[in-house]
Amino acid sequence: MNVIELFTRSATRFGDRIALEGPQGRVGYAELADRVFRLAAGLRERGLRPGDRVLDLQPNQNSYLETDLACMVAGLVRVALNHRLHPADYRRIADDCEPRGFIADASLVDKAADVMDRCDVRVVVGDDYDRLIGDSEPLRAPDIRPLVSLNYTSGTTGAPKGVRRHHQHRLTSMVNMSLDVLGGWPNPDDVYLHAGPITHTSGLFVLPFLAAGAKQLILPSFDSGAVFDAVANRGVTHTALVPTMIARLLAHPEAPFLDTVKMLAYAGAPMPADQIAAARHRLTRNLTQYYGLVEAIPPVTILDPTDHADASLLASAGRPGRLIELAVVDDDGRPVPTGESGEVVTRGPHVMPGYWRGESDAKALRDGWLYTGDLGRLDENGRLWLGDRKSDMILTGAYNVYPREIEIVMSGVDGVTGVAVYGVPDPEWGQRITAAYTGTATEDQLRDHCRAHLAGFKVPKRFRRLDRFPTAATGKIDKKALIADG
Q: Are 59 and 126 in contact (CB under 8 A)?
């Protein structure tokens, strides 16, 4: 079984039902399949061949899901780009994966123009995209290859690494999401709401609802009022959000209790226990948290609605999924006693086979286990309690941000003699990026320089000018002291 076989079965069984409803209108299952296979043929006719990498830069819209499926039909390796990234990020990813194709929404072409110019095949979502589909006959013989995508993460130095993802990983995630996060297989009358970026958390729920013949409703961007309206008037039964979004729902002056929502899942960043309790009291009792990472397609662990009823468990990441092995080990890879802290490791069909270039494989993959870089402990009931990360990575608004990348950018400003970037707890963002620096540069200079060289979510929320940095016994900057001081 592969993803395309699963999709074509749904198209045959649920042909007249609405599959997608979003900024580009409504499309039924049979029509969606026709468009996907025509698009796959069009991409091949323009010169793309199985195994070619194709960059895909789109906001939340129907065509984002169409291109995902069409690339699989054509045997292409899709590299989805977050439209919030900086153009420099696109260049680094392109340098690594060497794409031959680029699909971009018309609204984003200028942002990625230099990378698009390097690609042999370019498709602009708009008239060009529609013409490509309309002029092509459906591809009759899909060329299914194991590798379906490269999903990029960053190393602790900020260098991009492409995680190889196969059909197996997508299908494993579908099963685990359905049985462990959603609490059972969706049914055709369910409606899933993509309220956040499909490139991120929300995209993991595409397959469970596609397999069920259910409708997927796509919002162009997150808006609290639009979420409440979709639940009240458009039949939404399930959605997944990041903690920042839940905080905004709770802050809405007319936030209703979401009686009809069967499951509100959340992930991507730490969420304060009091905020979880507030969401359960004011939004829905049907809360589920899950934990995962790019190298181990989520979910890895799940905190289900029953666990959420116990206030003492709200800081836990929950138990491993049913197809997941999980352990906590010491620096030598030996399991630590129950309740003791160590590095979280996992193995199973959800774990990547390796990185695109093979870099860091030996460090990340050992004896069949993926070493996550997260610290945590397992309690006597098998629940995972996450602690600090082994690296200094900051989780802000469910995005991974690496301090070193920001520090390098800030060091290029005249008048900066030293810089240290770190995250401090924040009720809305999970962590707030803070930059402490020494020198004569002004906050405005630093902010403008960061905005010119970094994605918006990587720009520090606060700049602190210091006379000198606190240091540890080794002479290095003491970031713990900086964090304690805010």
A: no
CA dist 108 and 395 (Å) reads: 26
- CA–CA distance, 344 with 422 (Å, rounded to integer): 22
| Ranges for all domains in the chain classified under CATH 3.40.50.12780 | 3-282
pLDDT at 269: 73
pLDDT per residue over 210-262, tens digit each? Answer: 999 999 999 999 999 999 999 999 999 999 998 889 989 999 988 999 999 99
Reported residue count of the chain is: 486
* Domain 394-484 is found in CATH 3.30.300.30: yes
Q: Where exactly does CATH 3.30.300.30 map onto the chain?
A: 394-484
Entry pTM = 0.86
Distances (CA, A) of 262 to 55, 144, 191, 302, 390: 35, 35, 10, 16, 36
Of 43, 331, 295, 11, nearest in space to 152 by CA: 295
**Helix/strand/coil (H, E, C) string of the chain?**
CCHHHHHHHHHHHCCCCEEEEECCEEEEHHHHHHHHHHHHHHHHHCCCCCCCEEEEECCCCHHHHHHHHHHHHCCCEEEEECCCCCHHHHHHHHHHHCCCEEEEEHHHCHHHHHHHHCCCEEEEECHHHHHHHHHCCCCCCCCCCCEEEEEEEECCCCCEEEEEEEHHHHHHHHHHHHHHHCCCCCCCCCEEEECCCCCCHHHHHHHHHHHHCCEEEECCCCCHHHHHHHHHHCCCCEEEECHHHHHHHHHCCCCCCCCCCCEEEECCCCCCHHHHHHHHHHCCCCEEEEEEECCEEEEEEEECHHHHCCHHHCCCCEEECCCCEEEEECCCCCECCCCCCEEEEEECCCECCCECCCCCHHHHEECCEEEEEEEEEECCCCCEEEEEECCCCEEECCEEECHHHHHHHHHCCCCEEEEEEEEEEECCCEEEEEEEEEECCCHHHHHHHHHHHCCHHHCCCEEEECCCCCECCCCCECHHHHHHCC
Are 341 and 347 in contact by the 8 Å Cβ rule? The answer is no
Which CATH superfamily includes the segment(s) 3-282? ANL, N-terminal domain (3.40.50.12780)
Cα dihedral 395, 399, 404, 407 sign: negative
CA angle 279–280–285, rounded 5-degree value: 135
Q: What is the pLDDT of residue 472?
A: 58
* Cα Rg of the chain, angstroms: 23
